[in-house]
Write a structure and sequence with these properties.
alpha/beta; Peroxisomal Thiolase, Chain A, domain 1; 2 domains; six-stranded mixed sheet; four-stranded mixed sheet; 18 helices; 13 strands; 35% helix; 17% strand
Length: 474
């Protein structure tokens, strides 16, 4: 049985204050450092972040091709008509996002000041997507007095701040378990909220009813648990609960930055086997990644661009004869985990050859789609050049055609710097549209993960998938 990629939703939550007070780079900085003093001056407004061209591409208001032709640095060339909502999702303001964090909290660890909470409830209850589902907006009625919040902050709580004003806090789930500290609970609520938002947009765009989801594979960078089971799980199922996906279950899958494509392969297997009809792959945002490269941005006197939390959700369903087929491709096994050339061979060359195809039969490649000006180097282009070199070596293109290969088959990085999200997945909805319109036949997503960061191995990891025109569609 075949499985199809039916849709992918992509959301961002603007979060400059969460960046300032909770991003890992800032938390590790010495209090009062010159960097922390300068940082607030380089934070963007919501309007500036909304107009950032790569993010309009991410939510579907523009195409990667438009971005490719735009002069760099992209932050100097704002989108001419930015919109909050796009074909694939939205960019949510920070104050609304804090309200959503409260809504997804089922244990009352997120406290919001009562006046602020009432205002946010009014905003969120007018949300064009969330209001269509059984979202527990009533949780925003339980606002707290500011004095209560300030007392909690003197103990074990993390502040929620807007424009230098405390508007709430996140309390620790345990006074003794470091795995349920206020800081880690804040991370989890942010992950859960962005995942819920992406899932809501997925349901809305596809028309799929919540009760028709069978299974969810959650692939964010966070883990949930306690002192006895630090990574026990539950993030995925907790997302389903908020949107009343009452007939679904789910698990959390982790593999650093490559988890998203591993999750797609697992979702494919559950549908292709005939076990389930509709499987969702979803990942929420990473607070730790906010401002990860901000020191360099401040040093270069450029805006701090890592000011959004990302989320995505993909729907994998049984073959409908219309949507592109989702096809697992390569895996980076142990033997191929030491050198780049072996990685390209195992993730790209061998699986393409195994299907009787050539590298040039792939219309679009999407490896790690990080935004070049955030990292200071163009990782997507580096990957395209590796692939082009292999195509030359195999005799599929000539040496002088390498530049054309990179230009034609590569897409620029446009994904938020959120670990698991850039790894190929953001291209899939754009590619799906091109396949359905007949513009292309195939797109290839490549994920790579840095397993060595866990200090258990020195290996990398990776997985690749392809979406291909459905042979039954015309």
């Amino acid at each position: 049985m075949n499985a199809v990629f039916k849709f992918g939703s992509y959301v961002l939550a603007f979060a400059p204050n969460i960046l300032l007070y909770h991003g890992a780079t800032q938390r590790l900085e010495k209090p009062g450092s010159e960097y922390l003093k300068k940082l607030p001056s380089y934070l963007r407004s919501y309007e500036d972040a909304l107009a950032y061209y790569p993010y309009q591409v991410y939510i579907g208001n523009s195409t990667p091709e438009e971005l490719k032709s735009l002069e760099r640095p992209w932050y100097m060339h704002p989108h001419p008509s930015p919109k909050r909502f796009g074909k694939f999702g939205e960019i949510m303001p920070e104050y609304e996002f804090l309200g959503l964090m409260k809504i997804v909290d089922v244990f009352d660890f997120v406290w919001l000041e009562k006046t602020f909470s009432r205002k946010i409830k009014e905003k969120l209850m007018a949300h064009s997507v969330l209001l269509r589902y059984k979202i527990p907006f009533e949780r925003l009625d339980a606002g707290r007095e500011l004095d209560e919040i300030k007392d909690a902050l003197k103990k074990a709580a993390s502040p929620l701040i807007i424009d230098q004003e405390v508007v709430g806090c996140v309390k620790a789930a345990s006074e003794v378990d470091e795995n349920q500290s206020a800081h880690l609970m804040l991370d989890l609520f942010a992950t859960k909220a962005t995942g819920v938002l992406a899932l809501a947009h997925l349901l809305d765009r596809t028309g799929l009813k919540p009760e028709h989801i069978d299974y969810l594979v959650e692939c964010s960078e966070e883990i949930a648990g306690d002192i006895y089971n630090r990574g026990g799980g539950g993030i995925g199922k907790s997302m389903l609960e908020i949107l009343d996906c009452k007939n679904a279950t789910g698990i959390d899958l982790k593999s650093f930055c490559s988890a998203s494509v591993f999750a797609l392969v697992q979702g494919w297997s559950l549908v292709a086997s005939g076990l389930y009809d509709n499987v969702v792959v979803a990942g929420g945002g990473s607070v730790a990644k906010l401002g990860m490269n901000a020191r360099d941005h401040v040093r270069k006197r450029m805006p701090v661009l890592e000011d959004v939390l990302g989320g995505f959700a993909s729907l994998i369903s049984k073959d409908d004869g219309i949507n592109p087929l989702l096809i697992p491709m390569g895996k980076q096994d142990v033997a191929a985990s030491y050198h780049v050339k072996d990685m390209i061979q195992s993730l790209v060359v061998d699986p393409i050859k195994k299907r009787g195809l050539k590298i040039t039969d792939i219309d679009l490649f999407a490896p790690e789609l990080q935004i070049p000006e955030i990292l200071g180097r163009d990782i997507p282009e580096i990957n395209y050049r590796f692939i082009a070199e292999v195509a030359v070596r195999l005799g599929e293109i000539r040496e002088e055609e390498k530049e054309e290969f990179v230009r034609k088959r590569g897409v620029p990085g446009f994904a938020p710097q959120q670990g698991h999200i850039p790894s190929g997945v953001p291209l899939l909805s754009h590619a799906r549209e091109k396949i359905l319109s007949g513009e292309i036949k195939r797109a290839f997503a490549i994920a790579k993960g840095s397993l060595f960061l866990g200090r258990l191995t020195k290996l990398h990891d990776g997985m690749s998938v392809m979406i291909e025109k459905n042979p039954r569609d015309g």
